[in-house]
């Protein structure tokens, strides 16, 4: 059986592992590097992800995969501190005392926020799918908690579409991030970088005889004569890990629904200084051309890199502004008093389909693993709802592979 997997991100690579055992598998990846949003830059002496990533204590499928690839001993648990940038100042919000000192919420506001954090894991997410996140927070915690705490978070993740996001996503995010102590969240990172996971998957797949074609986008998809034609080449089975609207575009099949998606523009900077007061993740309450400042070297040890590494995270709909890189860099340098000479290097990664926007009613939009003879899996699949993650992408890859193999046995 000949199988084509469109997309060399985590879901596609994971699905290819079991499928390569008994089939001829070809992976098509449009970019020159595998990994999708998990691709990395190679700098002098180290690797750094194009988009920041970490994992959580409950990611059992990820841990099993790392173990299988001989990478389990590389997994380390680090502290993820948080803060907010408000009125030109960074406010740490990691420890209970820092939260109590935060001047933009009252004591009652903070108590309500604490109760919600404790209750989040027990709430029924399915009942929140049709409830806007902003409406939920305003009703249960009040307007000030929304504007001073949650609105910057929603804006940093979803930009202009933040008012469409469901409470299911927000509560899920609170629940998954409740593994924290006085020093911050307990988050997992791969010592040496997540490129080790992608490279190990590639090496394993090549050893199984899988063909991997980088820099090769799928530009056409057609079903004819009992075969699927991808770029004119015939396959028995196709697994598409790209968004359904992209399947619609390359196939011309208008019956594939478009899901709400957003693009991401993530700038990575190498600096000679720390600008976020030792804090890993700073959400921007003040208006800026980025929603969060993520200082990777306040998470992973700085000595591994020899410089401070900062991400500026921005999301967009459609196309990013043509001058976005310079706009982000200029604003960052001005806002954080960083001279241009302190910036060793900068890169801007842009992905038009970085991930779904979990709008109200999203649960009803999730496609099945098989539609009209085509297999679909990716960040839009059910294991990635209501919050996408490496764990969800791995589960989606394993489940769709099982479905493909079951379908061939029928």
Automatic annotation (TrEMBL):
Name any one Pfam family assigned in the record.
Amino_oxidase
Q: Which residues form the Amine oxidase domain?
A: 10-405
InterPro entries per UniProt? Amino_oxidase, FAD/NAD-bd_sf, Zeta_carotene_desat/Oxidored
Molecular-function GO term, any one: oxidoreductase activity
Specify the domain of life of the species encoding this protein: Archaea
Q: What is this protein called?
A: NAD(P)/FAD-dependent oxidoreductase
Q: Which species is this UniProt entry from?
A: Methanofollis aquaemaris
């Amino acid at each position: 059986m000949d199988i084509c997997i469109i997309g060399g991100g985590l879901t596609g690579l994971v699905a290819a592992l079991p499928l390569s055992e008994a089939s001829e598998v070809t992976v098509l990846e449009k970019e020159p590097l595998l990994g999708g949003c998990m691709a990395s830059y190679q700098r002098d002496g180290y690797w750094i992800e194009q988009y920041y990533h970490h994992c959580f204590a409950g990611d059992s499928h990820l841990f099993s995969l790392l173990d299988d690839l001989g990478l389990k001993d590389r997994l380390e648990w680090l502290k993820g501190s948080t803060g907010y940038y408000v009125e030109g100042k960074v406010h740490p919000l990691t420890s209970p005392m820092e939260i109590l000192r935060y001047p933009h919420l009252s004591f009652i506001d903070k108590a309500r926020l604490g109760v919600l954090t404790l209750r989040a894991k027990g709430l029924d997410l399915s009942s929140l799918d049709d409830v806007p996140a902003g409406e939920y927070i305003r009703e249960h915690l009040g307007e000030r908690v929304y504007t001073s705490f949650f609105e910057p978070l929603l804006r940093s993740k979803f930009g202009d579409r933040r008012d469409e996001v469901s409470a299911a996503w927000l509560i899920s995010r609170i629940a998954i991030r409740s593994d924290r102590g006085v020093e911050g969240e307990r988050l997992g990172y791969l010592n040496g970088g997540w490129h080790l996971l992608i490279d190990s998957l590639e090496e394993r797949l090549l050893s199984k005889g899988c063909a991997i074609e980088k820099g090769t986008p799928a530009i056409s998809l057609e079903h004819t004569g009992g075969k699927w034609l991808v770029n004119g080449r015939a396959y028995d089975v196709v697994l598409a890990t790209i968004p359904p609207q992209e399947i619609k575009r390359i196939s011309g099949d208008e019956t594939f629904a478009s899901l709400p998606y957003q693009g991401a523009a993530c700038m990575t900077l190498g600096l000679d200084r720390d600008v976020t007061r030792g804090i890993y993740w700073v959400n921007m309450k003040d208006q800026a051309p980025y929603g969060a400042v993520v200082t990777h070297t306040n998470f992973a040890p700085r000595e591994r890199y020899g410089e401070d590494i900062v991400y500026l995270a921005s999301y967009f709909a459609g196309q990013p502004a043509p001058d976005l890189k310079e706009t982000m860099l200029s604003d960052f340098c001005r806002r954080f008093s960083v001279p241009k000479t302190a910036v060793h290097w900068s890169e801007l990664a842009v992905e038009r389909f970085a991930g779904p926007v979990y709008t109200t009613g999203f649960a009803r939009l999730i496609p099945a693993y098989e539609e009209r003879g085509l297999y679909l899996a990716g960040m839009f699949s059910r294991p990635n709802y209501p919050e996408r993650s490496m764990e969800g992408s791995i589960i989606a890859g394993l489940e769709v592979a099982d479905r493909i193999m079951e379908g061939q046995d029928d």
